[in-house]
Amino acid sequence: SRAVVRKHNNIRDITDSLIEQSLEKKEASTAAQIPNKKIVNLVNDLFGAGFDTVTTALSWCLMYLVTYPDIQKRIQAELDQTIGRERRPRLSDQGTLPYTEAFILEMFRHSSFLPFTIPHSTTRDTVLNGYYIPKGRCVFINQWQVNHDEKLWKNPHVFNPERFLNAKGTEVNKEDGEKVLVFGLGKRRCIGEFIARRQVFLFLTTLLQQLEFSVRDGRKVDMTPRYGLAIKHKRCEHFQVKQRFPMASLS
C-alpha cells in the first residue's frame, strides 16, 4: 500500500519530499497539494541559496585577492605558519586564522553581494523611526546600506580586513563581525548561514594554501558591480593560477 511505501521510503531532504509530493498529487487531499509551479520555484530557491551564494562569495574573494596581492600573501603566510603544508585546512581551524577570517568578513561587508534580504511582510500596522508601514506591506532590509554606513564603519568604501582585528591583530572583534549583514536578520534570516560561512572558510583556505592567484602583467580586474538579486562582477579573462608546492605532500 501507499502507507507501507511511505513508511519505508528514504526521504533524504526537502527536495526529495517535494518530488514525492508532486508524484502523489493525484492521491493527496486538495488541502495538502502544492502546485507544480510552486514546487519548481521552491527548488530554484534551494539551488540559488545553496550553490550560488557560496560560489559568488568565493568569486569575490578571488577578485579582492588579485587586486590586493599583499593581502593574499599575508593570508598564505598565516596558513603556512598555523596549518603548514603537510595537511589540508579543516573546519576545526576556524578561530586560529584571525586574518583570514577578517578577510572573509571584509569581503562580505565591502562587496555586499547580497544587497537586500529576502522579502518580509509586516504583520500589523507599524511605525519605525517615524515611518508608517501598513500591515501586509512587503519590506526588504537594505544590507548594502548598513555595510557602508559611515556611522558604523570608518572609511566604509575602503577594503581593509584589519578593521575587524584587535590592536594586536590576534583576534577578530566579535561585535564588529556581527554588524556585517549578509544573511538577513531575525527569525527569517538564512537558515543556511552556518553552513555557508564554513564552506567559504574551508574552500578559500584550501585554495590559498595550495595556489597563488594573480592577473597577467599590465592587466587589472574590473570590479564594477553588476546589479541583480546578487551583485556580481564582470567576467575576468586575465586570471593566472600557480601551484605553491607539490600537492602530493598533503594528507
Automatic annotation (TrEMBL):
<dbReference type="GO" id="GO:0005789">
    <property type="term" value="C:endoplasmic reticulum membrane"/>
</dbReference>
<keyword id="KW-0256">Endoplasmic reticulum</keyword>
<keyword id="KW-0349">Heme</keyword>
<dbReference type="InterPro" id="IPR002401">
    <property type="entry name" value="Cyt_P450_E_grp-I"/>
</dbReference>
<dbReference type="GO" id="GO:0020037">
    <property type="term" value="F:heme binding"/>
</dbReference>
<comment type="similarity">
    <text>Belongs to the cytochrome P450 family.</text>
</comment>
<dbReference type="InterPro" id="IPR017972">
    <property type="entry name" value="Cyt_P450_CS"/>
</dbReference>
<dbReference type="Pfam" id="PF00067">
    <property type="entry name" value="p450"/>
</dbReference>
<keyword id="KW-0560">Oxidoreductase</keyword>
<dbReference type="InterPro" id="IPR001128">
    <property type="entry name" value="Cyt_P450"/>
</dbReference>
<protein>
    <recommendedName>
        <fullName>unspecific monooxygenase</fullName>
        <ecNumber>1.14.14.1</ecNumber>
    </recommendedName>
</protein>
<dbReference type="GO" id="GO:0004508">
    <property type="term" value="F:steroid 17-alpha-monooxygenase activity"/>
</dbReference>
<dbReference type="InterPro" id="IPR036396">
    <property type="entry name" value="Cyt_P450_sf"/>
</dbReference>
<keyword id="KW-0492">Microsome</keyword>
<dbReference type="GO" id="GO:0042448">
    <property type="term" value="P:progesterone metabolic process"/>
</dbReference>
<feature type="binding site" description="axial binding residue">
    <location>
        <position position="190"/>
    </location>
    <ligand>
        <name>heme</name>
    </ligand>
</feature>
<dbReference type="GO" id="GO:0005506">
    <property type="term" value="F:iron ion binding"/>
</dbReference>
<keyword id="KW-0408">Iron</keyword>
<keyword id="KW-0479">Metal-binding</keyword>
<keyword id="KW-0503">Monooxygenase</keyword>
<dbReference type="GO" id="GO:0042446">
    <property type="term" value="P:hormone biosynthetic process"/>
</dbReference>
